[in-house]
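Hallway conversation turned thread

IA: we were arguing at lunch whether anyone had actually written out Glutamate synthase (NADPH) small subunit end to end. Turns out nobody had. So, for the record, here is the sequence (487 residues) and right after it the structure tokens. Reply here if something looks off.
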Amino acid sequence: MAKQPMLKFVEVGREMPEKREAGARRADFDEIYAEFAREKAAEQAARCSQCGVPYCQSHCPLHNNIPDWLKLTASGRLQEAYEISQATNTFPEICGRICPQDRLCEGNCVIEQSGHGTVTIGAVEKYITDTAWDEGWVEPIRPASERPESVGIIGAGPGGLAAADFLRRAGVQVTVYDRYDRAGGLMIYGIPGFKLEKHVVTRRNDQLAAGGVKFVLDCEVGRDITFKEIREQHDAVIIATGVYKSRDLPGPGAGATGIVRAIDYLTASNRAVNFGDDVPEFTSGELNAKGKRVVVIGGGDTAMDCVRTAIRQGATSVKCLYRRDRTNMPGSQREVTNAEEEGVEFQWLTAPKGFKGDPVSGVIVQQIRLGQPDATGRQAPEIIEGSDYEEPADLVIKALGFEPEELPTLWNQPELEVTRWGTVKAEFTTGRTAMPGVYAVGDIVRGASLVVWAIRDGRDTAAAILDDLKTGRASVVDGAKPAVAAE
């Protein structure tokens, strides 16, 4: 009788891949976790309890078949494990690196709830797909047959690329338009290399291009091409622009030199460090933390990217101000721990009141307490009067989140319906908008969210487009019947 390969969580403890020592990782932008060895990946995968109701799967936005590919990994059947993983996730090696597993699959693992420590799902997912690339199991896109229909996708972030992959595999002709000179969106220019090394993204871009996806880069809709022109060239159009407009920071002195947007700061670093681009603002020090006292304002994953980037650039000190406490911050707790190990100081229950100097020399900080829960159930921040103090700063980075750009105005498309938050109105699961043949996916619909949700939206909408192309519903002809919710 074959030995049971699973249910080892009682006798085998939870382990992550080896994490590089903090002092060493402060000196570069390489990923901080080593790769699992084959034996260790199998051992950790074998801890899965194969429970009857896999909460890891139900709490994954993509509903990945996690127990199945864990069992295959534990059994040494890695190519099959990759095929199962790839079946539901366009970019499993990316999700394995940057998904907040502690809030999704791992945080809902049954054995975690019983006190045995969660299965290291993300690390195994990363290992499976990296092995697939190394072994040549990741095959080029080869549609069984070519179709005449064409889809234009505006935005080369995770949502747009996931849709492009799905549609191209079905033989649809796909063109992706993006304002930047490289495809990948925030995966290329927003997320630092120590979380996601750039070759991981570019090899997927290369795979898409080799499979027939056409990329039109350095192309901004409303400047280089009109939305109307894109609609005229394709049978359907997907809006996947993401959200790039930074939330503003009020208060006296907020316009001083040295107060910068997180997206500008991270983009400059990624360009200069990861691609060797000539970035004058980085070279001049405007968007470089070297030798500076840095204050980052915000508590999300973007703020964590900024503080950890500043450490690596050689800042003399890095402090993060957040208006709630550690328990209530939106960023990954794993990232907070990594930042603390690297030398970041967190000042909880604080918020900026104003700024001194121009160039900036300090932040006027007000202390906060948490009061009664608000309508969402979270305790509302309350200012403690008379608690102000000054925090010295040479560089202040605003990481307060992102909002949608005003697409109807920028694209001269007043009929493009948006919500009161500025996001595009689109059907849930199909991405259909009220404009014939126009769909929307990812953050431009949800607001700033996770890469894994953008992938989910891209795949769902691509499937809906295939159905609509079959029925003729995906028509961009003016005056065609607008998409409506199914009965």
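OS: looked through it. The radius of gyration is 23 Å.
IA: good, adding that to the notes. The CA atoms of residues 107 and 113 lie 8 Å apart.
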